[in-house]
Design a protein that fits this description.
The chain has 2 domains: 2-108, no CATH class; 117-179, OB fold (Dihydrolipoamide Acetyltransferase, E2P) (Beta Barrel), CATH 2.40.50.140. Helix 2 (10-35) runs antiparallel to helix 3 (56-75) and helix 3 runs antiparallel to helix 4. It is built from 4 helices and 5 strands; from the N terminus they run ααααβββββ. It has helices spanning 2-6, 10-35, 56-75, 81-108, and strands at residues 124-129, 136-142, 145-153, 164-171, 174-179. By secondary structure, it is of the alpha+beta class.
Amino acid sequence: MIEWFASHSFLEQVFLLSGTVGGIILVFRMILMIAGLDHHTDVHVDSDAGFQALTVQGVSSFLTMFGIVGYTLVHGALVAAVFAIFAGLAAGVFSMWLMHRIFRGMLRLQSSGTVSLFAAVGSVGTVYLTVGREGGRVQIDFANRLREFEAISADGTAIPTGTPIRVQSIEANTLVVAPVER
């Protein structure tokens, strides 16, 4: 193996080392991510710029593509060494940009799961504990779940248990409800 590596020119050795190191890091990070052991330890530089390419994935993808493209062009004697270096740099920068876009797209898929209580306005449900001016409890089908909330009557009259209601508004994390006309 050492003889094979030594038989290459210096530039080919640089491309081989770059591609090998970058590829090993990419595979190692992929295994960690699949195993759930990835702890998001990337270093982000110039976070105001919006293009945070200096991550472990970005740098390792740069090294991998720089090495693969550069070695392929130089070893096959397809082009001059200078062109192979520039082509390797272009491929590395492109792969870095592509990794940035992929991870940014994956981050957009995340959600907190928090549902705003104001989205309950207009929802229908039933009175669970008699609702009046002082309060009570209602059950409403909200965010695809049957949920129970504190509630007060919109007009101050008592609404008995089991009465269908509609949420009119929200006041201090309490639903303001009124009976549904049938």
